[in-house]
Design goal:
The chain is α+β, with helices and mostly antiparallel strands. The protein has helices at about 20-35, 105-110, 120-130, 130-140, 160-165, 190-200, 245-250, 265-280, 315-325, 330-345; strands at about 5-10, 40-45, 50, 65-70, 75-80, 85, 90-95, 115, 145-150, 170-175, 185, 205-210, 215-220, 225-230, 230-235, 255-260, 285-295, 300-305. The strands form four sheets. Strands 13, 14, 15, 16, 17 and 18 form a six-stranded antiparallel β-sheet that branches.
Length: about 350
């Protein structure tokens, strides 16, 4: 097995997707091991404390606390215990949701001067926000699901939302992933309850129109350029009537995943082109999963982009690439090599001016 550089694998985090992150990290860790990387495991608990982990799993408060040193080039200081400092050459951020996926962690990783996997600060922040990502997509001429966005103080009533968007409605926290806090509603009472749920996860909610049709997902990966995987299709089978949190991560029978999607060749190419265009419109690189709806009149509507897609045993992103001919081991190698190449290019830029 080829010996490769040392990777810091981050998992856990301060979001409602903490448990999902641990599930994803287990699979990423296995792929990194199979690809020959040395791994430093860092679990981030629900209070935001970074801990040196002996294995991927529930984060133990007895594990030593660690910190990545600003300007340290990937040096990780062990703050308690007798272990010496560690050195990572690239970070694989396996955190989902706020404080992991929306750009704040990516900004933090800029300060230690270390390479990291996935899109940068701006793309991460834009993709996480379901309101502003749609603004950017629409500005690029990419059709999206019709959406209303508001805070608790200026919430749109049910009748006005139905008048604008039709029925049923989807109610979501504006900044959350994995379908956490998402509700499909058909009545005013359900709408009120769904808003309360959304506002427990974010200060801003979005309400989206129902786009009846096939739910299609595609992985985008930076190789020589942005490339799209074969599309996959999600056919929900759960009582929720959509690809819910349980269907994604708990109930293996909660949705039928079709690889590749049942599309004619010309439609597949059109889907892949739109996926790449959506990723470019939001400045994505490294990895991203794009989700959209294909309506019966063959209209394509982009729903959202996910910059740290799930890597669990039943997640779409690694499955899509495996069907496309890239194994999980090769996938993590591609992602890490892209991170290192981008870091080398950025490090060569002039950071000061001498007149």
């Amino acid at each position: 097995m080829q010996q490769r550089c040392t990777v810091a694998m981050l998992f856990g985090g301060q979001s409602a997707e903490h448990e999902v992150s641990i599930q994803s990290a287990l699979n990423v860790h296995a792929a990194l091991e199979a690809a020959g990387y040395e791994i430093i495991r860092v679990g981030i608990d629900r209070q935001g404390v970074w801990r040196l982990a002996p294995a991927i799993g529930a984060i133990d408060p007895a594990w030593p606390t660690v910190a990545m040193l600003p300007g340290g080039g990937g040096e990780i200081a062990v703050l308690d215990g007798d272990q010496s400092a560690l050195k990572a050459y690239v970070v694989f951020p396996g955190l989902h949701g706020p404080r992991g996926e929306h750009g704040s962690l990516h900004g933090l990783l800029k300060l230690p001067n270390v390479a990291f996997v996935g899109p940068g600060i701006l793309a991460s922040a834009l993709c996480m926000d379901k309101e502003f990502s749609k603004y950017m997509l629409q500005a690029a001429g990419i059709p999206t699901v019709k959406t209303l966005s508001f805070g608790r103080s200026n919430a749109v009533g049910y009748a006005d939302a139905v008048r604008e968007l039709g029925s049923p409605l989807f109610v979501k926290p504006a900044n959350m992933g994995s379908s956490v806090g998402v509700s499909k509603v058909h009545s005013e009472a359900a709408y009120t309850e769904a808003l309360e749920s959304a506002f427990t996860f974010d200060t801003k909610a979005v309400v989206e129109s129902y786009a009846e049709g096939q739910e299609i997902e595609c992985g985008v990966l930076s190789l020589d350029s942005l490339q799209a995987s074969v599309p996959g299709e999600i056919v929900p089978t759960s009582n929720d009537g959509f690809y819910s949190y349980d269907a994604k991560y708990i109930d293996e029978s909660g949705a039928k995943l079709v690889f590749p999607a049942n599309l004619p060749d010309d439609q597949t190419r059109k889907v892949q082109e739109m996926y790449v265009a959506a990723a470019r419109a939001l400045g994505c690189e490294g990895m991203v999963r794009v989700d959209f709806f294909l309506k019966s009149n063959v209209e394509l509507l982009v729903n959202e982009l996910n910059t740290i897609p799930g890597f669990t045993a039943i997640s779409m992103y690694p499955k899509l690439w495996e069907v496309s001919g890239i194994s999980p081991e090769s996938l993590v190698v591609h992602l890490i090599e892209h991170a290192l190449n981008r870091f080398r290019q950025e490090s060569a830029l002039i950071s000061s001016h001498q007149g």
